Amino acid sequence: MKIFITGGTTGIGLAIAVQYLEAGHEVGICGRNIQKVELEKNYPLLKMYSVDVYDKDLLKEAVSDFADQNLDIMILSAGNYSDSALHQLSYAESTEMLKCNIVGAINTLEISRDIMNINKKGHIAVIASVSGLLNYPKATIYSKTKRALIQIADAYRRALEDFGIHITIVAPGYVNSPRLRELNNDDLSKKPFVVDCKFAASIIIKGIEEKKEMVVFPSKMKYLIGFLSILPTRLLTFIMLKRVKRQKNG
Ligand SMILES: NC(=O)c1ccc[n+]([C@@H]2O[C@H](COP(=O)([O-])OP(=O)(O)OC[C@H]3O[C@@H](n4cnc5c(N)ncnc54)[C@H](OP(=O)(O)O)[C@@H]3O)[C@@H](O)[C@H]2O)c1
């Protein structure tokens, strides 16, 4: 199969790339900086592209070069996140998040649709976040972008199913990626139910194989989110904001 992964240069995206490569598939990955890719060995079936997903023309060029009308799977792992509430974010940080998590995702969905539509088949996996499953005031802009992404992917699912193109929405809990470690000074001890990138990759690949509409993991986080999402909004907001305060104060 031919699989393209945006944000495949580190973290969850890179772990997915490695698992597909080990299984003998052709993989294309992109990120803004391909120099950061760290691999334990060479993979002849891997192609890398320096691309910002916000640049639709450049992204299209890369995906077309890789897939040439025959793209089996597209995985949207490119994501921009920080741990800050809106008032602590700079204008540049907020716009980077919106450009990558929303516009970049739409660019990727559009490009995938155009290529997959040629053969009337394909699968797209959109990596959102469990934080996008909860709706409460004062959530971070990151959570809001992921919530919007879930809605956008769902709308594309309806539009694309008649063309034989399936969409899996993925909502991970905490995954021990370089970015998450960087944001938490290498200390993830206060984060609940953390899993590693390898585990995340295998759950995501299984969800794609089984053509699941939605994959939420790990299970403990899935049940916690399920419980939180039925709480009244005021109680949910109180719990979520208290949790953030507790984490910040140690
Ligand atoms: N780790 C978690 O706990 C967690 C939990 C829930 C959801 N997620 C989501 O899972 C995805 C992967 O997260 P991760 O933790 O593995 O993060 P990561 O290690 O920071 O990886 C993010 C990837 O996206 C790329 N990227 C960022 N902005 C981009 C842009 N504008 N254009 C192209 N590529 C871009 C990065 O490469 P460059 O910087 O070189 O561009 C990198 O390859 C993200 O969508 C994230 O929101 C993560």
Description:
The structure is a single chain. The chain is α/β, with parallel strands linked by helices and 250 residues long. The protein has one domain (2-249): Rossmann fold (3-Layer(aba) Sandwich), CATH 3.40.50.720. It contains eight helices and nine strands. The protein has helices at residues 11-22, 56-67, 91-119, 141-160, 178-183, 197-209, 219-228, 233-249; strands spanning 2-6, 26-31, 46-50, 73-76, 122-127, 165-172, 175-176, 195-196, 214-217. The strands form two sheets. The chain has a seven-stranded parallel β-sheet, with helices on both faces. Helix 1 (11-22) crosses helix 6 and helix 2 runs parallel beside helix 3. The radius of gyration is 18 Å and the shape is globular. The mean pLDDT is 93. NADP nicotinamide-adenine-dinucleotide phosphate binds next to helix 1, strand 2, helix 3 and helix 5.
> In terms of structural class, how would the helical and strand content be classed?
alpha/beta
Radius of gyration: 18 Å
Principal-axes geometry comes out as: globular
Order of helices and strands: EHEEHEHEHEEHEHEHH
What ions, cofactors and ligands are bound? NADP nicotinamide-adenine-dinucleotide phosphate
Break the fold down into its secondary structure elements and pairings.
Elements: E1 2-6, H1 11-22, E2 26-31, E3 46-50, H2 56-67, E4 73-76, H3 91-119, E5 122-127, H4 141-160, E6 165-172, E7 175-176, H5 178-183, E8 195-196, H6 197-209, E9 214-217, H7 219-228, H8 233-249
Parallel strand pairs: 1-2, 1-4, 2-3, 4-5, 5-6, 6-9, 7-8
Annotation keywords:
single chain, 250 residues, alpha/beta, Rossmann fold, 7-stranded parallel sheet, two-stranded parallel sheet, 8 helices, 17% strand, globular, binds NADP nicotinamide-adenine-dinucleotide phosphate
